[in-house]
Design goal:
The protein is an alpha+beta fold and 471 residues long. Helix content is 47%, strand content 14%.
Length: 471
């Protein structure tokens, strides 16, 4: 029997992120070999906090509370059942805190309030206690979890504590090396680029360092000619308008998603948030009637819509963060406050994903529609990023803050621990399947598909429609 059986068709190609120091990536036949050192040979992260007959608060509160799917696996456990007292098991908390929470449960049960209302009230109680400690999977665990989805079952331990898995290249869409100390063989590099599998390198701060692709990917001359020609036509205006409308729609949905728990928890604050949402919706409606012959003639008007929408959105975010964090408004370069620093770091990771998708679609990175041309500025990447900021990065950062987790900063910005937390949440969100074109696809895959749709649109073969997240 062969050590590595033939590859089978794979419906959802994987986007692997390798950030484990000392990992070796090589090639064997039609497979990528991933080899890493595992000192103890065991998973250092223990099983999740579960008990028979219990319900994880994350599950019952995800619909109307600030937490979201994919967040902390150990929020709390509430006993339910005929003989249950409704006690909450709070890991690593003192008795006074547990008594306070259990008294709150008893009061709510006496009022016959729903599980969602219970979750909302409990989150308010916990916000007055010590911030939740969220266990992060270490790099070894993250690597194993990724490989378990796509690697062959066969395992080899070449020597000592080394572990090895083989991933059929037919199951790969992209490979991202994040951080230092990862070795990649020249044979694997050649094999990946020949198959159109993106190979990207990110710095420890999540900034793109390099992206390798086959020279043939830049040979789609017709697509690039059409892209450049569209700039001076009504098609370019149509595409730029759609970028803004998609951004506004997803910002609106993000505010609705993150703020729906306020409807019962803080009605006055909820009413203020609703006004922002309605104003953004009105902007979208106005843009649906927008027309123009050339971008140069209408860009100022378009940027007026974009600027107004951004102001309304970040004012809405400030409402969400009230009482939790001081948010001075959106700031990009040089921001040192926790929220803006985390957003900027998350956007850096997103830029790398979108940049690779644009290259793989055969488009010109530097020829955008909405963003103006500047030397060294990948305008088209910045265009396409707009529709993904809110559903990927903003949602990840707001989920962290809503859980009461501190975003730590120092004189240079985010601390190393906070950078790891933000990177973990953003990468986790990128791997999350969401509804798209009648199926559920990981957001990483959706980014690539949107870039391909854009390539078809600039050739005049279809209309471009921005990705619409659900809330």
């Amino acid at each position: 029997m062969a050590l590595y059986p033939p590859a089978t068709p794979f419906e959802h190609p994987a986007d692997l992120v390798i950030d484990l120091f000392g990992t070796f990536l090589g090639k064997r036949s039609e497979r990528m070999i991933v080899r890493w050192r595992d000192p103890d040979g065991a998973d250092p992260v223990g099983p999740p906090l579960t008990n028979p007959g219990t319900v994880d608060l994350k599950d019952i509160s995800s619909a109307d509370s600030p937490t979201s799917a994919g967040d902390s696996p150990q929020v709390a456990v509430i006993e339910f059942g005929e003989n249950s007292t409704g006690d909450v098991l709070l890991p690593d908390r003192d008795l006074d805190a547990e008594r306070l929470v259990n008294d709150e449960i008893a009061e709510l049960n006496s009022k016959n309030e729903s599980a969602d209302e219970l979750a909302i009230r409990l989150l308010d109680v916990w916000s007055q206690q010590t911030p939740l400690e969220v266990p992060l999977p270490n790099p070894t665990t993250r690597l194993r979890e990724q490989l378990d989805r796509v690697a062959d079952e066969s395992r080899v331990a070449p020597s000592g504590n080394w572990r090895e898995r083989a991933v059929p290249m037919s199951r790969l869409r992209s490979v991202t090396v994040a951080g230092r100390g990862v070795t990649v063989s020249s044979d694997l590099i050649a094999a990946l680029v020949e198959r159109g599998i993106s190979l990207s390198f990110l710095s420890g701060r999540g900034q793109p360092v390099a992206q390798l692709s086959a020279p043939g990917l830049g040979g789609t001359v017709q697509t690039r000619r059409s892209q450049l020609a569209a700039y001076d036509s009504a098609l370019g205006v149509e595409i730029a308008v759609e970028f803004i409308r998609g951004k506004l729609r997803n910002q609106q949905h993000q505010l609705q998603y993150s703020g729906k728990y306020l409807k019962t928890a803080d009605p006055p604050r909820f009413d203020r948030l609703v006004k922002k949402v309605k104003s953004i919706s009105a902007l979208r409606q106005q843009l649906s009637q927008f027309q123009g012959d050339r971008l140069d003639q209408v860009r100022d008007r378009l940027m007026g819509y974009e600027g107004t929408g951004a102001r309304l959105y970040w004012e809405g975010v400030a409402i969400l963060l009230e009482g939790r964090l001081s948010f001075p408004g959106r700031s990009t370069r040089g921001a040192l406050d926790p929220v803006n620093s985390a957003l900027n770091y998350g956007y850096g990771i997103l830029y790398g994903q979108v940049s690779a998708a644009v290259v793989n679609a055969g488009l010109e990175l530097y020829a955008g529609f909405l963003h103006v041309d500047r030397p060294g500025k990948p305008a088209l990447v910045l265009d396409l990023v707009e529709e993904f900021r809110a559903p990927i990065v903003d949602r990840s950062i707001l989920a962290i803050t809503n859980q009461g987790i501190t975003l730590e900063t120092d004189a240079h910005g985010l601390t190393a621990a906070t950078r790891k937390l933000v990177a973990h949440r953003v990468l986790e969100r990128l791997a999350t399947p969401v509804p798209y074109e009648g199926k559920r696809w990981p957001l990483r895959t959706i980014i690539q598909n949107q870039a391909r749709h854009l390539a078809v649109a600039v050739r005049g073969e279809r209309r471009y429609r921005a990705f619409a997240s659900r809330w």
